[in-house]
Sequence to fold (246 residues):
Amino acid sequence: MTNKYMYFIANWKMYGNLKSLNTLDKVIKFSKSKEIMKGRLIYCPPYTLINSFLKKFNNCLIDVGAQNCHESSDYGPHTGFVNAKMLKDIGANYVIIGHSENREKGETNKIINQKIKNAIKAKLKIIFCIGETLKQKKNGRTKSVLQNQIKFGLDKVSKKTNLFIAYEPVWSIGTGKIPNIKELEETVKFIRSRFKRKMPKILYGGSVNSENVKNFRFIKELDGFLIGGASQNSKKFIDIVKKTYN
Ligand code: PGA
Fold:
């Protein structure tokens, strides 16, 4: 059991439609219960649902974010994209940046760095994803990969108060595979050691469910979880929160 203030961030990826909003009633009820006194729930639905989620959560403390943003700080001819200030404008408070599913499609550390800087300017809270591939892990390169992603992703970023680092081993995302707890503890400590003082907050992501969270919750340096698949099912999402606390 942990007594810490924890963040539970739901990454819905490219799933969900207006009908899915009905499934959130359970979570809204739960968010008002004593069981979640010490934690924060945040949903990052697809762009198409951000506004509806904001309306749905109007009377509760659940927060809403986006899953990505364009690197440009200004309006411009970028068909199909939205930037950080447009997200802030509709009321989103968070944005996920650097998810491995986007890195795989060519998002570089430099682009990620630009996105982070503009998201800070727009006063969004940032969930900055880092993580090694299986090949990098097997070659013993986990720490150097993470160090590089942090160094270049946060180049000339001095304000780290609204920053979350989500450590998501690529090989763990959506696979049901999770890191060995001792190894994870060591990696999280390593990430923490890259920063001065107690900032930023550190999350773990990759196949989190209500069973394995019982092991993760003992890792002192963790401030919460970024949850993909399990977060689309309200009962599973609530169970993860419950199992974190008791
Ligand atoms: P998963 O996804 O929980 O389905 O592994 C996590 C993520 O991609 O953020």
